[in-house]
Amino acid sequence: MRLSGFFTALLMAVTVVLSQNSLAEVARDLPEKQAAFGLYDSQRSDLRKKLESFRKKYARVHLGPRPFYLVNEMDESPLKDKLKRCENRRFTSSKFSIGHRGAPMQFPEHTKESYEAAARMGAGIVECDVTFTKDEALVCRHSQCDLHTTTNILETPLAQQCTVPPEFDAQGKLVNAADIKCCTSNITVAEFKTLEGKMDAANTNATSIAEYMNATPNWRTDVYAARGTLLTHAESIELLDALGVDFTPELKAPQVEMPYQGDFSQEAYAQKMLDEYKQAGIHSKRVWPQSFNYEDIVYWINHDPRFGRQAVYLDGTYNLDVTLAEMETWVADGVKVIAPPMWVLLDVNANGEIVPSQYALNAKEAGLKIITWTLERSGLLKDNGGWYYQTVNGDTGNTDVIDNEGDVFEVLDVLAQEVGIIGMFSDWPATTTYYANCMRLR
Question: Where is the signal peptide (predicted)?
Fold first, then answer.
């Protein structure tokens, strides 16, 4: 009796998971197993893809101690009890858990090492912020002009090609630390690839390059920042596909006049980003293209609808008063997914409880799916939590309900269960992966 390709792949994949065999071992034995199950040669490619996808999806992830620490720090509550009961479970990847620039709490953002760390911590989707070089190659950087804070460019000869290079007085003292500006558009992709990633930081009062670069916040670390490997956008696609995760590229706003060099228009830039997924054979269902520029979103919806149906409008207005009527105009334009910062989605009621904001309620009524950002990007929550928590930490006049590190899970629970977000960007995806697994969010 012949088994269908699906059930054969499923049976073999379960065998892989249970035995912890490597894919190489399975691939070696594949012809023999196919013969035993009566598979036709034409089914081999499909079987390999199913097997690889299953293996990656259900591979064990490694969360490290942080999520467990955060649960222990929570005030006593039914939520804490539920999260505690998940401590000994097997954790797997979840698309609810999105690696924001990889895992930049401890790894240099948008580097190979940061992306790998995010995938190992169970991020089911990882972000590459996309910009372009002098020769119009797409690369992964949060901003077109952040090389001076995120790479070692200032200690290389390429520093002299920067938009605003470092300047020194007669005694060799750095005199323009606050003005230095280095952009990907200052250099070619070949030159870009010679650089190394570092933790995003700069001391704008520095009087030397070493002092300028040595500015990592004390709640982050340089332990893993010895040498970050920079990636082109195409290289990020290859890496993330090999890691078994999906993609959320953000088209960053150019900081050069467009059309760049007379012929590289905004539309060409937006299309080129999607084309690199097509060239890599990536299905549109695995890609969530993002932009703060509403025109980019509408372009994708109208000109490349297969990718446009998952286009994410990053609402950067930071306006709590966006009306239902305005959101309905977004829906009428074809927008299906929005992503405001998490504080926009939260409020505190008269009882001192974290609840969905009116913005969140409007988005749900309009039928919009919601992703939000960014967990684990602030300093210690006992010290207020900063910008990302402003509607729940007293900064906007509401009651301050944030006072310990465990409150990160209280916030995440409201976002997931009451606001109904479908994904959470995090600078340390292990925290979100832990929650997603405990709440069975895939």
Answer: 1-24
